[in-house]
Design brief:
By secondary structure, the chain is mainly α. It has 11 helices and 5 strands; from the N terminus they run H-H-H-H-H-E-E-E-H-E-E-H-H-H-H-H. It has 2 domains: 1-60; 71-204, Intergrase catalytic core (hpI Integrase, Chain A, Orthogonal Bundle), CATH 1.10.443. It has a 3-stranded antiparallel sheet, with no helix packed on it. The chain has a two-stranded antiparallel ribbon with strand order 4-5.
């Protein structure tokens, strides 16, 4: 009865005041409920899964909503960051890692110093992605240069188990505490404002910007999927915003 009531409540559309649940939330909640009862059935606690016949609302998207920067805007942002302070070197390194490796901010701020590792003559980034999965990506030479400059200035290169991206204390020195994704968001908003970029710029912007720029330069979707650590190429496609420029060019044909 409780489960049935909860499922019924999930099915109620959200109202104008923001109450209720959005369609993606409903689908996510139902998936969690089904997995719970699957586990109980497997353990012999229940004879059948009461949620197996419940269908969530239809919801699919073919285009992501993440704000994307052009390659020129991304370069403008990176060049606007001061490099004569430790905080500036840290911020440039973090943004560089995200944009050149398509990394989620959570995966980037979870990195330890040992996750910047040498592979032959090149260097790699190692990320812990969703579900605890490891993903290794070769470091772009720009990201490598940014990170080396930060590590040399910080003097923490040998602290292998220590957090890579750390907060700054009141003395403008590195603390022992790793940055959180919200720290990253505040930093990105501050840097975007200073560089004259859209206020909508966020942590995920760099993942989408990197993927779009890679594909515009002849990269393949399946390779972008591997670098980004996506399970499906369809997910990677949500970050492909190459059609934005085409659409804008077509709209400008309306000469009145």
């Amino acid at each position: 009865m409780i489960v049935a009531g909860y499922i019924e409540d999930l099915g109620r559309p959200s109202d104008q005041d923001g109450c209720g649940y959005s369609k993606p939330s409903v689908k996510q909640h139902l998936a969690a409920i089904r997995k719970l009862f699957d586990y109980l059935v497997t353990g012999g606690i229940l004879p059948a899964n009461p949620a197996s016949s419940v269908r969530g609302p239809k919801y699919s998207i073919k285009r992501g909503k993440t704000p994307v920067l052009t390659a020129e805007e991304a370069r403008q942002l990176l060049d606007a960051i001061e490099t004569d302070t430790l905080i500036g070197l840290r911020d440039r390194a973090l943004i560089g890692v995200m944009v050149y490796s398509f990394a989620r901010v959570t995966a980037a701020v979870l990195m330890r110093i040992e996750d910047y590792l040498q592979a032959g003559k090149r260097w790699k980034f190692r990320f812990i992605e969703k579900g605890g999965k490891y993903n290794e990506v070769f470091a772009h030479h720009n990201a490598e240069a940014y990170l080396d400059a930060y590590l040399d200035a910080a003097g923490i290169r040998e602290e292998k188990k220590g957090p890579l991206f750390r907060t700054i204390d009141r003395k403008q020195e590195l603390s022992l505490r790793p940055m959180h994704r919200t720290d990253g968001l505040r930093m990105v908003k501050r840097r975007a404002l200073a560089a004259g970029l859209p206020v909508s710029t966020c942590n995920h912007t760099f993942r989408a910007t990197g993927i779009t720029t890679y594909l515009k330069n002849g990269g393949r979707v399946e390779v972008a999927q591997q670098i980004a650590g996506h399970e499906s190429a369809r997910t990677t496609g949500l970050y492909d915003r190459r059609d934005d420029e085409v659409s804008l060019d077509e709209v400008e044909r309306i000469v009145i």
